[in-house]
Amino acid sequence: MSKTRSDWEQRFQSLTLEGRAFIDGQYCTAASGATFECLSPVDGRFLANVASTDAADANLAVQVARRAFESGVWSRQAPAERKRILIRFSELILEHQEELALLETLDMGKPIGDSMAIDIPATANAIRWNAEAIDKIYDEVAATPEDQLGLVTREPSGVVAAIVPWNFPLIMASWKFAPALAAGNSFILKPSEKSPLTAIRIAQLALDAGIPQGVFNVLPGYGHTVGKALALHMDVDVLAFTGSTAVGKQLLVYAGESNLKRVWLEAGGKSPNVVFADAPDLREAAEAAAAAIAFNQGEVCTAGSRLLVQRSVHEQFIPLLVEALKAWKPGHALDPETRVGAVVDQRQLDNVLRYIEIGKEQGGQLLAGGARTLESTGGLYVEPTIFDGVTNAMAIAREEIFGPVLAVISFDTEEQALQIANDSIFGLAAGVWTSNLSRAHRFARGLRAGSVWVNQYDGGDMTAPFGGFKQSGNGRDKSLHAFDKYTELKATWIKL
Ligand code: NAD
């Protein structure tokens, strides 16, 4: 039987909250002794004082990670042995599912049901998937003349630093550390200052699983301090980032100003979800469109935040959409029935409310939501919101809000729909709903986006790559392609 809210509250009483950094196999305070307060957006409760690390801690972590890498204790370990240890790590995460889910929910506000059903299992799965892959990937022998042997081998890159966001704190981190560790790298994780607790907790689980000390390190702290220090560091080989496009651009500058470290960016989105009149089932499309903007409080990089509806079914579709969104009511994030939790912090809440005002000012018609709610909880909740009558020129159609605010745009023809869909600086994902097979393929081909969903929204698992076109980033998380980010290719020519 699933736990009630009071069961979770009781569980919270027995939690020990760790806020220190994890370097060289142990928890430690920041060298400066600085900390910051971690408060829960769920109801404002104090969670922990968290180490606010900076350049001094980054230097130490990089030194430790480099030493571990050079020693070969992990980097030259047999892939099958790394696999065994990582699978144990994955199992330990599942053994601590409730604790980690509770931390994730309290730290960043998502519904406890989602943390339990999605975030923690998906993290464990990402680790297991990459672990299982690593002893099944073969290197290459080049097609050389008789007197040559050309070996094309992959080597771990060295010290990988990852800077990740707060919307799926553990999942986003695992998409990076799982392939990077499986490939033999040493790793430094910089979680978002808004959601550091689960990253800090799993560092101990990594060590318990058998990942040698110094190989997996966690540096909580701010972007402009420890994040910047890692990005500018002369001895970090790879910087893997998920976050906003603006910060991603800055990281490329830092890499250019330092050691030309490889920078991989999973950045923002403003994804179009396109409903043609011949969609197989308009009600299903409406339900998916509601989920695409309300799930995880709209704090999803692939949120279907621009909903393009063919004008001939607009009148029929809108009531279905408004009805479907009613299933996405905000509630206390520790209530197992809740589908929409709290927004991560006051700043983000203010940002969402500001865009709602801009939407109104620029002529959008507010059809649902539009206000803060559940203030009496002490938490940060906002109603999922729909604007109709939006044009693609309006700010709510161009800028990433990263909250549950949907912009509905009407179109007449397929050409017009494609033009609007692609008229964005972003290119992360897109959806298309049609029963016409040729149109589905034609439209999917025309979309400039890293993930395309036909007659569904947000499908996928570890087997396919994930990432963006245009200013949504470069490189891909997930699938075997993720190993490209954490390995260098070497050509060795042997004269026979
Ligand atoms: P953000 O860019 O503000 O922060 C992301 C991380 O970068 C945080 O850890 C932050 O501390 C760090 N950072 C900030 N400034 C820095 C600097 N100057 N130097 C180094 N590090 C710095 O993003 P956010 O608000 O945490 O997350 C929301 C964004 O993440 C949205 O744009 C969303 O689309 C994007 N996102 C993308 C994906 C994807 O896979 N493409 C997935 C999830 C989220």
What is the strand and helix layout of this fold?
Blueprint: H1 5-13, E1 21-23, E2 26-28, E3 35-39, E4 46-51, H2 55-71, H3 79-95, H4 97-108, H5 112-134, E5 140-141, E6 148-156, E7 159-163, H6 169-182, E8 186-190, H7 197-209, E9 216-218, H8 223-232, E10 238-242, H9 245-257, E11 262-266, E12 272-275, H10 282-294, E13 306-310, H11 311-325, H12 346-361, E14 365-368, E15 372-373, E16 381-382, E17 385-388, H13 395-398, E18 405-411, H14 414-422, E19 426-427, E20 429-433, H15 437-446, E21 451-454, E22 469-470, E23 473-474, E24 487-495
Parallel strand pairs: 7-8, 7-10, 8-9, 10-11, 12-13, 12-20, 13-18, 17-18, 20-21
Antiparallel strand pairs: 1-2, 3-4, 5-6, 6-24, 11-23, 14-17, 15-16, 19-22
Bound molecules: nicotinamide-adenine-dinucleotide (NAD).
